[in-house]
Amino acid sequence: VAQQIPSLLNPFIGILADNVKLRYMVIFAPAVTTICMSLLGIAPLYIFVLVLLFVMGLSSAMFHVPTPVLVKKVSGERIGKGMSFYMLGGEAARTVGPLIIVAAVDVWGLEGTFKLIPFGLVASFILYLKLRKINISEELKGSKSITGIKETFIKNLPFFLLIAGVMFFRGFMKTSISNFLPTYLDEKGGSLWLGGASLSVFEFFGAIGAYLSGTFSDKIGRLRMLTIIIFISPVLMMLFISSEGTMMFPYLMLLGLFIISSTPVLLALVMDIDSEHHAFLSGVFMFISYVSTSATSLFVGILSDYIGLVETYKISSYLAFLAIPFVLLLQKRFKSQLNR
Questions:
Q1: pLDDT at 146 over 80
Q2: Measured between alpha carbons, how far is 310 from 304 in angstroms, rounded to an integer?
Q3: SS3 of 337, please?
């Protein structure tokens, strides 16, 4: 809770980001996050652990809310490809990060993880060198107007409600795979090794899918790309559930390609909105993502305790089909309003 609760502040962080120099929020975030996480092992009291986790969560939010705006700035007409690179970095970190921290704890112990702090400092220094001359504050004319923020929210509320529907019903499937895949395979008689290897396969192909989807959305259109992803993903999930043994891996690879690939397309859609408050809109999107992920994780966890993960996986795939009406409504209502 201490780590995740700052995510509830994402829209307000977006308002703040619209009124300060965005690049400095992004530049300092890796250093602050790394320092907080690396000091957990030497925290003398539980309250210090909570404070470190809260500050880390706040720093993470201050990185993830404004970065799509910076990506939009440097991507020119290829926003989808820019978002794909952004997501590719995130998925690569989710794959490599656990290996690094496990190795660090094994060599130095939890108390010695403070030795990783220089990595965060170097990351922030590199960001400073790359971003120090990128200035978009002067382009956000009128962004200091609270009235403008309110009007922006009201104007785009129908769009975000549809986005929330897509993310919520799709989230059951994504959460089932991302959080519970090793346990699911264990229930089906697989080994712990198979569960770990399967998750690595899923994340690896997820990184590829995150890169490809945004790039292709620049060529065929965001909504068309999103529609393809939403239609195909539940079918692949059902095929994966019905498969056994080594036959699961081809479907798991395809699931990785399609399940994670919606996020860069959705981010690019948000950045395509004609607005002076893109950081605020990014904050709203991140807030929806946090709430939908939390709600679906809770649902999947509780339901699996009662009926088992195998049946829960089936229900998650059925619920994913309910995202289709929302993406079709997006096509009908907002295709002419978005740049792509």
A1: no
A2: 8
A3: coil
DSSP label of 321: T
User: From its phi and psi, is residue 244 left (phi > 0), alpha (psi between -120 and 50) or beta?
Assistant: beta
* pLDDT in the model for residue 122: 95
pLDDT digits over 251-298, tens only? 989 998 898 888 888 888 888 887 777 778 888 888 898 888 888 988
CA 138 – CA 178 distance, rounded (Å): 40
Check if the beta carbon of residue 327 is closer than 8 Å to that of residue 166: yes
Instruction: Evaluate if residue 134 carries a pLDDT over 80.
Output: no
Give the count of beta carbons closer than 10 Å to the beta carbon of residue 43: 16
Q: What is the pLDDT of residues 28-63, one digit of tens each?
A: 999 999 999 999 989 989 999 999 999 998 998 888
Among 168, 257, 155, 159, residue whose Cα is nearest residue 205: 257
**Tokens at 165, concatenated:** 């529907």
Q: Which of 139, 163, 148, 135 is nearest to 338 (CA)?
A: 163
Give which of 99, 125, 296 is closest to 203, Cα–Cα: 99
Distance (Å, rounded) from C-alpha 7 to C-alpha 10?
Answer: 5
Give the whole-angstrom CA distance, residue 224 versus residue 49.
Answer: 45
pTM (2 decimals)? 0.77
Q: Is residue 292 within 8 Å of 169, Cβ to Cβ?
A: no
CA separation, residue 54 to residues 4, 100, 226, 339 (Å): 8, 22, 34, 37
Place of tokens 């089906």: 188
Is the per-residue pLDDT at 181 higher than 90?
Answer: no
**What count of residues does the chain have?**
340
